[in-house]
Amino acid sequence: MRERAGASTAKLWLLMSADRRLVALAIVAFLFLGVFVGGIVHPTPAHQLVTASDSVDTLSQALVGSTVTGVTLVLTLSQLVLSQEQGAVGDQRERMEEATTFRSDAAAVLEEPVSPTEPSAFLRALVEATQRRADDLDAAVADLERDDVRERIEEYVDSIRENAEEVSEGLEGAHFGEFDVIKAALNFNYSWKLYTARRLRNEYEGTLSRNALDCLDDLAGVLELFGPAREHFKTLYFQWELIDLSRTILWVSLPSLLASTWALLYFDGDAPPAFLFGLPVSLFQIAAVVAVALLPFAVLLSYILRIVTVTKRTLSIGPFILRETDRDVDLEE
What we know:
Blueprint: H1 2-5, H2 9-17, H3 20-41, H4 46-51, H5 55-83, H6 89-110, H7 119-140, H8 147-171, H9 179-186, H10 190-203, H11 210-266, E1 275-276, E2 279-280, H12 281-293, H13 295-313, H14 329-332
Antiparallel strand pairs: 1-2
Helix pairs in contact: 3-12, 3-13, 5-11, 5-12, 6-11, 7-8, 7-11, 8-9, 9-11, 10-11, 11-12, 11-13
């Protein structure tokens, strides 16, 4: 995934793979250090800076108001997510019929009586079916007279095998609700594979045997199922994440309000300065208040970073390639 994304491993880990709680804590630590270091390097003594005016009261009032407003918005977001799961019995029956039809189509392609129920197992079955179709294609062109065509198809098959093995390993043992399922599915660049299968069939229709053409059609059929399956599970995962986000923000809003209220009611700018490790205690207090008060924002930012990154990487569905890094230049030349 890193090679196709054109980004560093550390950046991808931060945006997608890292535990969102760790990312939120890192943002809070950055806010604390930013305020704390800013107070140290400022030419005016820190205690005098925070007690010379009513800036602490003004800041605390603004933080209380922003926290209450943010929680209200989160509750609205939760209602929107839940409203998608509500509807008349006819709508629910239509959704079930569409899901059942899709599962039946997948079972026919997988040549199984029933398709897997768990998202990770379902996607893994499609990936392994893609690899089997690629093996059939490789066997169908083994005796092809044109070496250039055979080598091009063999290179295509090898790329499918390598990618499919990596994705299957990532999906093994993964559970829905964890990012591992979506992460592994994102690593399977089915759009390029589908485009290349159709292009090879069109370019060499007069050269390939009937069996090889059928293998290309079967391969494209499996890939056409992987696209909507991935999008469906991605949508369910987003709903899962938004629900977790709403619940987490509601919990962290309590210490956020408590910190802002404490600063508003109990911070005494007229008290004689106290020092800890040679630094004013008031600076520690203000930095802690800002960090804790902005904790809901840190949680929101950590979740949204992952959601928007995944959304950007999956804007298109089917044989549309929006990013140059998703292409295999050697096979397209």
